[in-house]
Design the sequence.
């Protein structure tokens, strides 16, 4: 059965699309059939994270009734399927999102909808089109507060909240602790993704970090989230793997 999951943050700039693109890639590398949809019509950038150019057919065309959903799908070399939104068209009939998905769900294990920031109509449409919701936030109080608003919206729409991925963790004293974040959000933290130059580097290279630097701490953290999404415990990593990961993150190249 296909799982349709909207990824929401409540605030822009917290790395929601980075988490979505890498989580989808990690699941694909684990043998899952994954589709990622750019549901951010006012700030579409999913395609850029995968190095895709401008698409002749986008999700905007599908929602506006000008194309079938199968016409908008691009297959990335990493195995994940992607439906980009247009960076030139800032509006679409978001109410058609769920209807458009129905005909395409049968052969997918996971469908991720990379929602817009905030809690507006686009986000509400993404949540309504999904069965489950994944929250993403940085460990800062403004980001967590806005993310809490997105969580409340998901609960009002009677969608299951899978948990929170805390992204861009620097382990600085100014950050909200994971314990406090969990108490504030009243949900489990299912991932802690460290901030690292390899993540920023992968965005510049337009390649998911789990493919660009698969042994980095950020990549391992995202792979752990992928395992948890499937209901599995992440694999135990021995001292050798941990040392290699530390050395990998120290490598400037």
Sequence:
């Amino acid at each position: 059965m296909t799982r349709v999951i909207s990824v929401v943050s409540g605030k822009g700039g917290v790395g929601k699309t980075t988490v979505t693109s890498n989580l989808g890639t990690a699941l694909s590398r684990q043998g899952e059939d994954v589709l990622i949809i750019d549901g951010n019509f006012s700030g579409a950038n999913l395609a850029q994270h995968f190095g895709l150019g401008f698409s002749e057919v986008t999700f905007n065309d599908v929602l506006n009734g000008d194309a079938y959903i199968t016409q908008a799908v691009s297959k990335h070399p990493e195995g994940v399927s992607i439906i980009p939104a247009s960076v030139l068209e800032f509006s679409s009939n978001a109410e058609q999102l769920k209807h458009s998905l129905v005909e395409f769900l049968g052969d997918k294990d996971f469908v991720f909808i990379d929602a817009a920031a905030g809690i507006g109509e686009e986000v509400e449409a993404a949540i309504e089109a999904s069965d489950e919701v994944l929250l993403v936030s940085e460990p800062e109080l403004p980001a967590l507060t806005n993310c809490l608003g997105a969580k409340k919206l998901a609960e009002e729409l009677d969608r299951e909240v899978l948990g929170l991925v805390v992204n861009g963790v620097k382990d600085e004293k100014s950050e909200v602790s994971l314990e406090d974040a969990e108490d504030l959000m009243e949900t489990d933290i299912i991932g802690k993704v460290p901030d690292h130059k390899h993540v920023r580097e992968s965005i510049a290279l337009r390649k998911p970090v789990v493919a660009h630097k698969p042994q980095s701490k950020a990549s391992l953290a995202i792979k752990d989230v992928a395992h948890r999404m499937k209901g599995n415990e992440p694999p135990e990593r021995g001292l050798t793997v941990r040392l290699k990961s530390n050395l990998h993150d120290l490598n400037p190249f």
Observations:
- The mean pLDDT is 87.
- The beta strands are 3-8, 34-39, 74-75, 81-83, 110-115, 132-137, 160-169, 189-194.
